Amino acid sequence: MARSSTLVILNGTLIDGSGNPPVPNEAIVVEGNRIRSVGRLPEDVRLEDQEHVEVIDASEQWILPGLIDGHCHLSFGFPQMTGVPSSQGTTSAEFSTLRAARNAQTVLRTGVTSLSVPGGTWFIDVAVRDAIAAGLIEGPRIFCAGRFIVTYGSITDNEPSWVGTPEHTNGKLANNVDDMVTEVRRQCKHGVNYIKMADSTWGDLQTIAPHELRAVTEEAHRRHARITIHARGSGSTRAAAEAGVDWILHADLATDDDLEAVAQAGMPIIPTMTFLARGVEVGLEYGRSQRAVDAMKRHLDGAVHVLERARALGITLMCGTDSGNSPLMPYGELHANEMEILVRYGGYTPLEAISAGTRDTAFAVGLEHEVGVLEAGKLADLILVTADPLADIRVLQGGRHLAAVIKDGRIVDFNGQTVAPEFLALQPATA
Fold first, then answer.
1. Mean pLDDT over all residues of the chain?
2. What is the pLDDT at residue 166?
3. Which of 22, 32, 104, 19 is CA-nearest to residue 406?
4. Which of 18, 193, 267, 296 makes the best surface tag, with the fewest CB within 10 Å?
5. What pLDDT is stored for residue 92 in this prediction?
6. pLDDT tens by residue, 66-109
7. CATH number assigned to the domain with residue range 6-66+373-423, chosen from the 4 options 3.40.390.10, 3.20.20.140, 3.30.450.40, 2.30.40.10
């Protein structure tokens, strides 16, 4: 059933995502899908009016903006599902779409109310985004790219050259500027929010030339789409800064000079260190070789240096985990772990890390003026947790301390699906 028209959250401790210290919460008033006020209860809101006002008592709880994962893949095919004889990309588009929708629901129920999806198979992520927006299914707000634009030797170019990159893979081969620009136009036609370029897997080889990246960036921006790049290497990080992409994914091997170029260009980085840390911690258990784990340790060490240097240079660091990109990265478990990484390796306080994972990462979902901070006029995405994240940032992980998730002004039902009232209104009456 549709909830009351006004939602009021009383008491508890407010961490609003702006970086301001926590304060006792008087009242957060939500009307429709936006926050009407934060602070003193408006005189015209009568708590006793139970027909129109729903009240949540958040005593002994902490209230935060909805979490944002700036790097999560929904339609790759990983982690594999028990009983489904498939590896990455070899299932049908139909099955992959249903699975991606389920993945989105899982992510929402761990407190992630916005999700940036930098690439997938077919245009599945676009479809899931639109289904969520239409009220057909529940899930986070999604801001997504299409398939990676890659060249020979880039990440996801795993098949022989005569096979190329079939639709069920997450890369699209384009080995010259004309083909790259055409692919940008094709993806924009099909509704992507941004373009994802992808250099080599580990950055040991620069597979996308600077002039190619400039051309793609220009075309994406001409079509009002943002652009990012998988760039672990020094050369690709520098090229991304000079091309003017909107943000950079990884940058593990960037030099100090490269980072100075990034700082001068004013673009953020999503280090995505959760994936590296996870590989080092449990890679052997998942069948990774010792050599592969050692390589991930080298990249983690490089990323720690990048994290420290980027912060010193004033580069904004956004939070993303790469959940869904491999069997190591299950949905619903790791989406808040990047904040712990910032605290553990980057010298952030928990309060600073929360702002990084909410206010700052809002840029990666195209909603930097709409979500990430709890204040009047913003979209009503927030979570309530039963343990203090400033005492231990890890309490935000895995949804284990969630008391409530509110997305778009609606309380998420952890046991079932809450259908949008306007969608209910479209259904025929039953006897």
1. 92
2. 82
3. 32
4. 18
5. 84
6. 999 999 999 987 777 776 665 555 678 898 899 999 999 999 99
7. 2.30.40.10
Contacts of 227 (CB under 8 A, 6+ apart): 194, 195, 196, 197, 216, 217, 220, 221, 245, 246
Question: pTM of the full predicted structure?
Answer: 0.92
CA 91 from centre of chain? 24
User: How far apart (Å, rounded) are the C-alpha atoms in residues 105 and 38?
Assistant: 28
Identify the pLDDT of residue 89.
Answer: 53
Q: In terms of residues, how long is the chain? A: 431
| 380: nearest Cα among 4, 9, 1 | 9
Q: pLDDT for 8-27, tens place per residue?
A: 999 999 999 999 999 999 99
Q: Please report, for the chain, the start and end positions of each structural domain, with discontinuous segments joined by +.
A: 6-66+373-423, 67-365
Q: How many CB atoms are located within 10 Å of the residue 325 CB? A: 20
d(CA 66, CA 358): 7
